[in-house]
């Protein structure tokens, strides 16, 4: 091959490496911005966005303080078989990875805007207030208005993967966005009146770990996943607090998880299962789609879990049809009873 010809595989790898480096940098900047906010005596207010914007750091922080990208955690839950075909899938997806133009905006500056916007979105979620494009441009993005779409997209990805929240445009005419809990879940791990951080991302990771381990995961297996994200049992995380209480107490009390001793285990071991509220609010397919998305692949890349999720979808569909049929059959009987009642002399 002539030297001047580009190797497409090399170019693909470079795009992937650039994309991952960008994500790592942004996660580090988000962690630093949140650390400054959480350690202060007040939550981030719109007037403090400049402080958050200057909180980005050029290097990834080491140690448990960094809440890493959830894709690392998902990788830890999957078997080696799930890697088969991943390279070809990455090849197919490579065209969707936008490589930033180094001559347009400094990478660090754009990343700082992404981190600041994440912080601002969290503040709005805490206040239970909608977010408008005008607010984002005026308070956070400012001189980078031309990059609004890119900054919002990247901030939305971090809100989704780290905190379990969807950023959706709910009023296109006024460019108004809402912050919604993902996968149909209704609990964000925040106490009433608490100005903390939503913890739905931890719940989704835990549900995913349980599903990937055959619908039951030992306590050790769950912590293997959470440890990769910087969360450790008995150690207070600077953003999310002490995770063990959340996992073994709060989410169990809310019926999202079941936490029980493994039968005949000596010494005693404990395991996690999905709780009734998790089964009622979300599905295995939704959780699998989330795991596949953060890994950059398709749910079918996890064959056994994908088949199980499809069966679960079919069973739920049959149950809904059956429920509607019962409801329909009861309606005429009720109508006949009312008709008989009013026809009496």
Throw out a few tags for this protein.
345 residues; mainly alpha; 3-stranded antiparallel β-sheet; 13 helices
**Order of neighbouring strands in the sheet with most strands:** 1-3-2
Question: Averaged pLDDT, please?
Answer: 74
Residues in helices, as a percent range: 55-70%
Order of helices and strands: HHHHHEHHEEHEHHEEHHH
Number of separate strands: 6
User: What Rg do the Cα atoms give?
Assistant: 24 Å
Major sheet description:
3 strands, antiparallel
| Overall geometric form | globular
Strand content: 5-15%
Alpha plus pi helix count: 13
Query: Could you give the distance between the termini?
Result: 99 Å
- Contiguous uncertain segments of 5+ residues: 33-103
Give the structural class. mainly alpha
């Amino acid at each position: 091959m002539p030297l001047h010809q580009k190797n497409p595989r090399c170019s693909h790898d470079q795009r992937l490496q650039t994309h991952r480096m960008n994500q790592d940098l942004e996660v580090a900047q988000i962690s630093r911005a949140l650390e400054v906010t959480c350690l202060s005596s007040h939550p981030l207010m719109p007037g403090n966005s400049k402080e958050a914007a200057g909180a980005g750091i050029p290097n990834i922080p080491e140690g448990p303080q960094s809440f890493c990208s959830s894709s690392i955690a998902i990788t830890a839950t999957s078997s080696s078989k799930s890697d088969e075909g991943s390279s070809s899938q990455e090849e197919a997806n490579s065209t969707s990875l936008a490589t930033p133009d180094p001559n347009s905006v400094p990478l660090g500056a754009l990343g700082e805007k992404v981190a600041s916007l994440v912080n601002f979105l969290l503040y709005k979620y805490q206040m239970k207030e909608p977010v408008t494009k005008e607010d984002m441009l005026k308070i956070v993005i400012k001189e980078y208005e031309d990059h609004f779409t890119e900054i919002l997209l990247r901030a939305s990805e971090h809100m989704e993967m780290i905190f379990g929240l969807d950023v959706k445009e709910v009023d296109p005419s006024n460019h108004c966005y809402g912050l919604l809990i993902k996968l149909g879940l209704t609990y964000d791990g925040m106490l009433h009146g608490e100005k903390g951080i939503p913890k739905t991302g931890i719940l989704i990771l835990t549900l995913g770990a349980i599903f990937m381990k055959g619908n039951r995961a030992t306590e050790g297996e769950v912590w293997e996943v959470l440890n990769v994200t910087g969360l450790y049992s008995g150690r207070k995380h600077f953003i999310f607090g002490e995770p063990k209480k959340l996992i073994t107490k709060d989410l169990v009390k809310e019926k999202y998880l079941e936490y029980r001793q493994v039968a005949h285990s000596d010494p005693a071991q404990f395991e996690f299962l999905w709780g009734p509220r998790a089964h009622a609010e979300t599905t295995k397919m939704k959780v699998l789609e989330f795991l596949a998305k953060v890994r950059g692949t398709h749910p079918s890349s996890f064959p056994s879990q994908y088949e199980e999720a499809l069966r679960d979808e079919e069973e739920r569909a049959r149950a809904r049809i059956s429920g509607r049929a019962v409801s329909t059959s009861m309606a005429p009987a009720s109508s006949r009873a009312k008709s008989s009642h009013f026809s009496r002399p």
